[in-house]
Design goal:
Blueprint: H1 2-41, H2 43-72, H3 76-105, H4 123-139, E1 144-148, H5 168-187, H6 199-207, E2 213-218, E3 226-231, E4 240-244, H7 250-263, E5 268-272, H8 291-298, E6 305-315, E7 318-325, E8 330-337, E9 345-353, H9 359-368, H10 376-384
Parallel strand pairs: 1-5, 1-6, 4-5
Antiparallel strand pairs: 2-3, 3-4, 6-7, 7-8, 8-9
Length: 386
Amino acid sequence: MIQIISAGLIATILAGQSSAFSSSSITQRSASQHLSTAVVSSPSALRLSDDDEVQKLLAKAKQLREEAAVMSGKTVEEMEQEREQTKKLAQERQAITEKARKEREEKGSTRQNKNILPVPDDGPSQIQQAAAAIERAFADGIVRQTVRFALLEEGEAMSGEENAWPGGMKQIYREAGRPLTEALLREVSAYSKDSSVDNEEQQASQQSRTAPKVTTEDIWDFDGSAISTAKAAGGSHGDVKAVVFPNIDMKYLKDIESIVQDVGPDRLLLLINPFWKNIESWGFNILAPNGKKRAQEVIFDNGYDVTYAVLRFSVRGEDCVVVKAYPYDWQMYAYREDPSWFNQETPVWLGASEEEPKSAQISELLNSRPEFKMSKNMRQMQRMMG
């Protein structure tokens, strides 16, 4: 009797739990449906939530800017101004590079009205200026040319302290000489007249801007010297060779002679940053007593005029740079700190010279300019004192 009552009681309890569970499930589904209906019928709730998230992100960004300003010792406004100035300088640098490229590609563009050349800001700017100068000289029949780059590694600016290159010539060649040379050869278009090719085909080759295939072969690894070759897409009459960092060792004179025979009288040959200044760089050498005579025959009797150069040096404590781009005169500049912006320098044009300028000439021009009346150290002290 007791067992029958217990069984009935358990059945009643289980039925009640099942009924309660079903009722709970129905209630939850009803609440869920009600919430979904409320969300769909109230899109403003979503917009409000999104706006809150945006405001939180903006507040976080503001907080980060303020923390960065505190760490740098500047105000938020000063950091914003510096960021805008950096952006502006980058845009100006890109504009100069693109303008130089466009002028080279325009048919008949000679830039005869551009007597004052801008200072290139970095490696790519140098490449564009150099390619334009080389092509102008080649069009005038100059097939043996010398190029002297300011040796900048990737991302390095023209202004500021020069790279010390602790790794010597190997590092200079690896990080500046070779990259600049190969980039230059990809830009230069120098097609010689080929009697085996008709005029229409020659014109099509010259107008083609397909980049050539550039290869480089080391001469002496410890010297950081090499021969770079550009195989033109339009035919071998557009091939270009360049000797990188040749010096006064007799081997380089022999190499240059061999390359001249290979390229012939009409194709372009470049010497990139040779170590000699002029014929006097070959002093008396007991191991090569005829070195000076051979250099005259191989190099200086065959032209190799400087068609592009960017030289940096210090005069009277000022950072100076001179720029040469065929057929224009040498342009002289000195960097002066921009009083409106921290750690920014602007090149100031000093004048022009038909010959490569000497330090004394630049010093005289600096003394005549009011911007450089005080020395660089004196100007720095004046800014510190307010």
